[in-house]
Amino acid sequence: MEEGVKVWAAGGPELWRKGSVSKRVPEAGKKTARITVVLDEGGTAEFVVSDEQDECADVKLRNVAGQASTLEGLGAEDLTSLTHLHEPTILYSLNQRYQSDLIYTGVGPILLAVNPFKRVQLYTDEILAAYRQDGERRHYDPEYDGTLAPHVYAIADKAYRNMTAPSNEYEHRSQSILVSGESGAGKTETCKIIVKYLAILGSKTGSTELGTIEQQVLESNPILEAFGNARTVRNDNSSRFGKYIQIIFDGYGKLTGAQIKTFLLEKVRVVKHSAMERNYHIFYMLAAGASAEQRESWAMGDLEGHQFTSQSGCYDRRDGVLDSDLYAELIEAFSVMGFEENGKANIFRMVAAVLALGDVDFVERPDAGDEERLTDLSEPSRPRLEAAARLLDVSPERILTALTSRKINAGISNQVTIYLTQEQSGHARDALAKAVYAAMFEWVVGRTNECIEAKQAEAVSEDRIFIGLLDIFGFEIFTNNYFEQFLINYANEVLQQQFNNFVFRQEQEEYEREKIEWNFIEFPDNKDCIELIDKKPNGIIPTLDEQCLLGKSTDDRFAREMYKKCEGHDRFQLAPKMRVEHKICVRHYAGKVVYSTEGIVEKNRDTLQQEGTEFERNIWRKFWEPSERVLGRF
Ligand SMILES: Nc1ncnc2c1ncn2[C@@H]1O[C@H](COP(=O)(O)OP(=O)(O)OP(=O)(O)O)[C@@H](O)[C@H]1O
């Protein structure tokens, strides 16, 4: 921070401004100096820097041409090549590249992708062929040092070569690619690009003409997206579930199939969505694409008339994608995958059944006895209940009994029937709708897997190697955060730990290999946060599990238990207002998040599985086993 040095100074609409130090005055009696920065945009700004660190949070040394030759032009291709690496240089470099549609930037072995939100010319056949050739050359010639720019193709290529290379340390080792980022960052699109590249590399024909299995693997996307994606405030095609896909190859590197595992489908969306958002795409796709006769057979009217699709008044997408086109794509994907007519019909019936259930409202008659209090359905609800029953292939009375009463065990052989309140029966209805939808989603994933796994038999089992792709929700901080956000952020916290270990360990190994003398650099460790969440017996999850085992636990009791156990923990914050509102606050690696405990006990317990009525249990069982046999019964 000597006079004349070029710096970044915090402030302005772009967060950082270019400037140079014009004056440095040591502060008497302190180990600090006051510096004046003349800003390139005009004016000056003053900062205090410490003698030891010579930088402060608001002023950072700037890379100048010559130190990193590419910086002044297109930004650094690999951020680790920059002499000074900190927030302003990262932002500046990424921005420089972004302006030229160069959305990919390397950070050592990691690829940073900035969502272009438009079609960019980065995925043409020529570009793909160039990365493929580059990968091949590198594979056969260890001396070869390719010069292609960072690209997601290069990452996929490297994973593929590492997996298949017989002569190096990665011999026949399966690989994994972790795709991470906040909602709308482009994770799912990135995964699709990777899968397509791997499908081409692993294609039996060796050309870009894909065979059946490669096509089937790619066609799993429109199917999963129809049932698991939705418009959110941030993303018109937001995946509301986590996904781990294994692309499976034989010992010769030929693609033999894939397997998909899904996590944490956002079930609550089925019954409730916020302003500017929609329910799952499939509801809108059926409304826009199915024939009038089909919709009539499903008792499906306009979306405006159904409780589960009309809460936000949002019926279309901002990105111009039409639900009718998506419907056509889904039907095509079903056919490529070989879904049977019966299976398809059953899936759509389940979607319609969920929609019908949502329209069943119970009106309370205060003058009636317990048994009849809720059974007198309002005029519009009765036909909707009948439709739901017909679609689920059960009698309306059974649904009614299931949603308005509950049998509980009293003693060893006695059962007592409890009649629910209007509010409780609304919850029971929502729980059933969510369970039916989730089981249907599970079935669709299972059926898709059956199809794309089919060719695996061809591969000798010990030769079975794979590239795993993890695409899960990024870190989430909303105005209101619930149990769902907590679980997502917990998963990200664990991934962050894995990331830290991986990056720092790799770097350390490289230094050792190159015999470089170095001092260990402190890196952010989030072990304590993970322990706050999952360590027995006082972590948040063990405490929640413990509360769920107690008969009479409530959300506020859980919150109070947490305050008792965790007050004073570095990663746990508590304010008086939070106490009153039964909220808990966790200081995650990515920031502080205040979670509402509303519904947490019930959500963790997933009551339907354990203590539902006989009817609920039957429905659950029928749907839960993801097999044709089960759905075939409907
Ligand atoms: N490489 C790309 N080229 C062009 N557009 C892209 C690219 N990546 C993402 N997009 C655009 O951004 C949108 C959001 O991307 P995507 O759905 O992949 O985000 P995400 O990180 O998976 O979000 P979520 O966590 O909400 O599912 C896409 O629908 C697409 O319009």
From TrEMBL:
A Gene Ontology biological process annotation? actin filament organization
Q: Which residues form the Myosin motor domain?
A: 74-634
Please tell me whether the keyword Amino-acid biosynthesis is annotated for this protein. Answer: no
User: CDD domains, from UniProt?
Assistant: MYSc
Its name, as the record gives it, is: Myosin-like protein
Q: Name one GO cellular component term.
A: myosin complex
Q: Which family does it belong to?
A: Belongs to the TRAFAC class myosin-kinesin ATPase superfamily. Myosin family.
One GO molecular function term of this record is:
microfilament motor activity
Q: Which UniProt keywords apply?
A: Actin-binding, ATP-binding, Motor protein, Myosin, Nucleotide-binding
Give one Pfam family: Myosin_head
InterPro entries hit by this protein: Kinesin_motor_dom_sf, Myosin_head_motor_dom-like, P-loop_NTPase
Residues annotated as binding ATP: 181-188
Work out whether the entry's keyword set contains Cell membrane. no
